[in-house]
Amino acid sequence: MFEYSYATTEGAVRKVNQDALMIKTARYKGREILFAAVCDGIGGLADGEKASSCVIGSVSDWFENVYPSLLRSGSGALDIRSSLDRRLHSINNDINKESVNGKVMGTTFTSLLIDTYLDTAMIAHVGDTRLYKIYDHTAEVVTMDHSVVGEEIRRGIITEESARFDKRQNQITNCIGAGARDRMYDYMLHKPETECVYLICSDGFRRQITKEEICGIMSPSRADDSEKMKAGLEYLMRLDIERSEEDNITALAVKYSD
């Protein structure tokens, strides 16, 4: 079974929330499936909220109308990954076609698909929206930030702590849209984990708080049902705003138990 919750706000400064999210569930042959995603429309471009909502709408349609046929046809995890990849490339082209009159749109995208029938968890990712796996004593960043500071962290030029205060932290290097025709998306496949809370969040959620703070509030022993997850996410969002976060703030949490 799944426990899940989410929270989102435009924050203390922005008048428009350019983030978008979805959590969808289904069943196949008695087994549960969950598909969750967060998009963060790129604030420096036009109509970020339009790009993020477009992506969420399209992948929601994929899950509701394409995914069932994939399961019925006997498709495995790699076939499903290829199908989602085709959909993301199609969305990329659609967003670029909408980018007219010099208005370029773009958005990040990070998703989690847990299919207990196939015993598979699949992560798809582009941009700097993050997916964490939170355990009782640690929090692991699973995705790789496609950003200027993210690349410098991986090259050892700056530390993760100093990156939190770097003025370039909003400069992303890969996304959906923004005029590029060919995009590369990250995919990860693994077994669904029952000893962790999966957390997907926009950069506005995690910029003012530490992994230790996230772990302390959202660990599986503490955030063990949907109500506690909701309370934990809202508490962390209040910390963000108290610490002068200016961006939109969005996060969702999922816990799976067999």
UniProtKB/TrEMBL annotation:
UniProt xrefs under InterPro entries: PPM-type-like_dom_sf, PPM-type_phosphatase-like_dom
| Residues annotated as signal peptide | none
Query: What PROSITE patterns does the entry give?
Result: PPM_2
Q: Using the record's annotation, list all stretches that form the PPM-type phosphatase domain.
A: 3-256
Top-rank taxon: Bacteria
Q: What is this protein called?
A: PPM-type phosphatase domain-containing protein
Q: Which organism is it from?
A: Ruminococcus flavefaciens 007c
Taxonomic lineage of the native organism:
Bacteria, Bacillati, Bacillota, Clostridia, Eubacteriales
